[in-house]
Amino acid sequence: MPASQPLASAEDQSAAFVELFFDLVFVYSVTQVVGLLHHHLDWVGAGQAVLVFWLVWWAWTQFTWTLNAANTAHTHIQFWTLAATAVAFFMAVALPDAFNGGGLGFAIPYVAVRVIGLLLYVWVAWEKPSQRTAVKRFGLLSVGGLAAAIAGGVAGGSEQYWLWGLAIVLDFLAAWVGGQAEGWDLDPEHFAERHGLFVIIALGESLIVTASGLAGVAWTVSSSIVAILAVSLSCALWWSYFARGRPRLEQALTAHTGLKQSLMARDAFSLMHFPMLGGVIAYAVAIEQVATHAGEPLALNARVALALGLLLFVGGMAAAMWRATCGRLWPRVLIVSATAALVVALGGVPAMVSLGVALTGVVAIAAVEQRATTALVE
Questions:
Q1: Domain span including residue 134
Q2: Quick one: residue 183, left, alpha or beta (phi over 0 = left, psi -120 to 50 = alpha)?
């Protein structure tokens, strides 16, 4: 690579292999969060999963902003992305013990990934004064959240929950205030593509969980039905995002420029994708319970996990589309809410029936939205 090659990205940049390699570590991180919640499927476990997944997500999404601005074919960009990948690996390995005396072992690589991303972003943006100012402003505002993450790791115990909760609040504040700056200069197609790839990572985890759960059981009628329903539901969730939601989000992001575009990217992608992906994690945990108890009723906590998974992913997508397009997607919200309520209420039915109810609701949403789109075209 010639030394004169620019660090900043060219127009129409697509996801690079180095970015996909970076994402592989976060595949493992998502798996670790699912495992954490699976072993502690209660309110304490849910709180731990939210706190630790926020840190994982914020490390990923901040680096995604960096690489959106960077020329990912440049040797220096590739080197520092690989360095961040190596550090993030240790973050993922430390995740299961983050609330069991290993908080600092998780927090140190987390902060290191964030710092690498911020410094790399400043370097990439150096030749663009407005972008450099915006990045430096966000970086300075991020110091508080990073310090709270380290402090929580050192403190442990109940103080860790409060300090990591404070880190989330401070991250929100940094995103809110930093996002008001001009000059972020996004590549909207690349930005939407990167977030879509992370959604695939999370949905793929649900398929892995289903396969792992069924691998150790005898194939019966019940297990066969569960396999069909689980794969069908994962595909239906994919459809609700990629066939319906993602194109509208990308079109809306591309239609805007400047501050409006960066604010929409912050809200509809960096912030609103977090509860959506948290929903996929909850769904994966519920699927694991269904796979191992196909013919038995699901426990209340597993039904709540399945219901929350649907609400957060499908309903969260509606919120993101509303933010991007100002369109009210009431059918999607009403149907997924009714479906989630029914899943929780049906406590005495086999697990595969609960899964069938969930699938019916998501398919109904797809059918209603497809009919509405066809009507508009005609």
A1: 15-185
A2: left
